[in-house]
Each structure stands twice: as C-alpha cells, then as structure tokens.
Amino acid sequence: xxxxxxxxxxxxxxxxxxxxxxxxxxxxxxxxxxxxxxxxxxxxxxxxxxxxxxxxxxxxxxxxxxxxxxxxxxxxxxxxxxxxxxxxx
Length: 89
Description:
The protein is mostly helical. The chain has helices at residues 3-19, 21-31, 39-59, 62-87.
C-alpha cells in the first residue's frame, strides 16, 4: 500500500481522536470544573496515552508521538483543573 496513503490515514485518525478532547478541555476550563471525571479514569487514561507516546518514540512513529503527546497534554490539563477544584473545596 502507498506509504503516503498510510500516513494520511494515520494523521486522520490521530486528528479525530485528539481533536475530540478540545471541546471537553474547553468546557472544563470555562466552567473550572472537572467533577464529571473520576481520578481513576484520568489516571488510567493518562497512563495509557503516555505509554502510547513512548511506543511511538520507540517505533520512531511521528503520527503516534504527535497525536498521543498532544492528547496527553490535553488530558493532563483536565487533571490540573480537577486537582485545583479539589483543593479549593
């Protein structure tokens, strides 16, 4: 299969799964609340995305690295809001 087509499919998939977090992060930051997220979910998701990022690094796969690196930052920002709201209660 054409490697350019494979790369395009990978970037398309990466865009979709990463961009899906932007509305949630926006809402979380605007409302200053992440109460709907459990710590267990956030911890497991952050761990999984971190490991996918490391997998991409080990495989030298730019698509996996970029997509999961950005997703990791987005999800960590939700965790930051959740940590802030917990300490302010």
